[in-house]
Design a protein that fits this description.
Helix content of chain A: 40-55%
Distance between the termini of chain A: 56 Å
Pfam families (chain A): PhnG
Strand order of the largest sheet of chain A: 1-2-3
Largest sheet of chain B: 4 strands, antiparallel
Structural class of chain B: alpha+beta
GO molecular function (chain A): alpha-D-ribose 1-methylphosphonate 5-triphosphate synthase activity
Number of helices of chain A: 4
InterPro entries (chain A): Phosphonate_metab_PhnG (IPR009609)
Shape of chain A: extended
Distance between the termini of chain B: 54 Å
Number of strands of chain B: 7
Oligomer: heterodimer
Helix content of chain B: 40-55%
Largest interface: A-B, 61 and 85 residues
Largest sheet of chain A: 3 strands, antiparallel
Number of domains of chain B: 2
Number of domains of chain A: 1
Protein name (chain A): Alpha-D-ribose 1-methylphosphonate 5-triphosphate synthase subunit PhnG
Order of helices and strands of chain B: HHHEHHEEEHHHEEEHHHHH
Structural class of chain A: alpha+beta
Radius of gyration of chain A: 22 Å
EC number (chain A): 2.7.8.37
Radius of gyration of chain B: 27 Å
Chain lengths: 157, 370
């Protein structure tokens, strides 16, 4: 998009992917993933979970000038692990615990000792689950695809 | 003007208790849950979010329950809540080209890349009451998945654009678009402000105005170029990161109307555009919004302004349901002092009128006696 003129580094792309997936992962899945960690994460809040709004922008005609469509609820959080790594989250909706855990996992994913296993057990499965849901919706929509036939009019002539 | 009144606290409290009792209805009937509203009254939820100008399905469901199903009251509740939220971010513009489509139709081209996808629509139903739904436990037959996936659905307007037959719609993104929640609207308003106002406006108001343009008040010869419904990712660029991240996705309905334009001294004849976008599956609202958006572009396109739907101040300043229902309903508040002064005035006028009538009668009698 307009603000991303410079291409992202591989690290940035990887982080972009997991932050986006963590924002959409259901809370029970995140809770289970915390429980499954070898030891419970120790962290302090840089920013306690806070709910507010995001102003949703769109473009006239989809491609034209920007305008403000409305707002949506958004909860954000920032944590610092005892290891010093910091994690952030911005999650649509008002679930503070979701924002907290998403920030914790953002920090944990930056830990080379944990990132591979977390990617395998949490991030990639989240992506697969999301893709499967999207695929199922698209396949149902595709089943309603229609071919209209135009009939010649003017049979009275 | 209404004046402050005192007292009545007990009656007011009891009235609200009665409201709560009537909202609950027959206690023998199970209470409605928010999950039920959210999952089974989805179009009501969509409308409340769109006109409440806040995308949050849980809050919209709560508002509908609290308002006893009165959607205007629910919209008011959501708007009031919205004002309590600190604004944490501004999203990147939604990229509706990447919409994951559940419905996509065009009334202008029969065969178009991506095809016509009907999706979950009331169109082509017979509008006969379905008594099977009255019997609970009705489980719909699951929709089979189609083996052939949806192809990419390029914009219909982009197809016309390739031939140069429609006005281009691109932007430089220089200044931030105006925000009517922060700055009061000024007239004439630019298109960004108009679109924001229309997006929050009452569907019935826009539907009626759009309909009026079809019936000849501001002839705009519209075609539904494309209607698409589906979900789009929402991204923000947090300062802390400096690159975009997805915060979730929302469902939207988009309508692009294509309208005739005879051209002007500087512009060759071409098609013009009207645009509508709503939260959720607000298809009828998106269509109405697109018609009214186009009508309101009369000034910009050098068309004669002859019809209500082209009158920007009239259209924009009367479409907000919170404002219009607020001002209409404020008439219920005590206007006792106002009305007292009107009473005095009418009594005085009546006395004058009677005196004049009596004087005229006396004059007639005297002239007859002569």
């Amino acid at each position: 998009m307009s603000a991303t003129a410079t291409p992202l580094s591989a690290d940035q792309q990887a982080r972009q992917r997991w932050i986006g997936l963590l924002a959409e992962t259901p809370l029970p899945v995140l809770e289970a993933a915390v429980t499954a960690l070898p030891q419970p994460p120790r962290y302090t809040f840089l920013r306690t979970p806070e709910t507010g709004s995001a102003l949703v922008r769109a473009r006239s005609g989809g491609t034209g000038s920007r305008f403000n469509l409305g707002e949506m609820t958004l909860t954000r959080c920032a944590v610092r692990l005892d290891s010093g790594l910091t994690g952030f989250s911005w999650v649509a909706g008002r679930d503070r615990r979701h924002a907290e855990l998403a920030a914790v996992f953002d920090a944990l994913m930056q830990d080379p000792a944990l990132s591979d296993s977390l990617d395998r057990t949490l991030i990639t499965p989240a992506e697969q689950r999301r893709d499967a849901a999207r695929h199922s919706t698209a396949a149902k929509a595709a089943a309603t695809r229609v071919d209209f036939f135009t009939l010649v009019r003017g049979e009275n002539e | 003007m209404y004046v402050a009144v005192k007292g009545g606290e007990k009656a007011i409290d009891t009235a609200h208790q009665l409201l709560a009792e009537q909202r609950r209805g027959d206690a023998a009937v199970p209470e409605l849950t928010l999950e039920q509203i959210k999952n089974q009254m989805t179009l009501a939820v969509d409308r409340v979010m769109t006109e409440g100008s806040l995308y949050d399905r849980d809050l919209a469901a709560l508002a509908i329950k609290q308002a006893r199903g009165d959607l205007m009251e629910a919209i008011f509740l959501l708007r009031a809540y919205r004002t309590t939220l600190p604004r944490l971010a501004t999203t990147e513009p939604l990229d509706t080209d990447t919409m994951r489509i559940i419905r996509r139709i065009s009334a202008t081209f029969k065969d178009l890349p991506g095809g016509q996808v009907l999706g979950p629509t009331f169109d082509y139903t017979h509008r006969l009451l379905d008594f099977a739904l009255a019997a609970e436990g009705d489980t719909p037959v699951p929709v089979p998945a189609d083996a052939a996936p949806l192809e990419a659905c390029p914009r219909v307007t982009a197809l016309l654009n390739a031939e140069g037959l429609i006005e281009p719609d691109t932007a430089a993104d220089d200044a931030d678009p105006g925000d009517i929640t922060r700055e009061p609207p000024l007239y004439p308003a630019d298109r960004a402000v108009r679109l924001q106002t229309l997006a929050r406006a009452d569907e019935g108001w826009l539907l009626a105005l759009g309909y009026s343009t079809q019936r000849g008040y501001a002839k705009s010869h519209p075609f539904a170029g494309e209607i698409r419904i589906g979900s789009v990712d929402v991204e923000i660029i947090p300062e802390e990161l400096g690159f975009p991240v997805r915060i979730g996705s929302i469902e939207v309905a988009e309508c692009e109307m294509i309208n005739q334009f005879k051209g002007s001294k500087t512009t060759p004849p071409q098609f013009t555009r009207g645009y509508g976008l709503t939260f959720g599956h607000g298809e009828r609202k998106a269509m109405s919004m697109a018609l009214v958006d186009r009508a309101l572009r009369a000034r910009e396109l050098g068309e004669d302004i002859t019809a209500p739907a082209q009158d920007e101040e009239f259209v924009l300043s009367h479409g907000d349901t919170v404002e219009s229902s607020g001002f209409t309903q404020h008439l219920k508040l005590p206007h006792y002092v106002d009305f007292q002064s009107e009473l005095v005035a009418v009594r005085a006028l009546r006395a004058e009128y009677e005196a004049r009538r009596r004087a005229a009668q006396n004059g007639e009698q005297e002239s007859r006696n002569d």
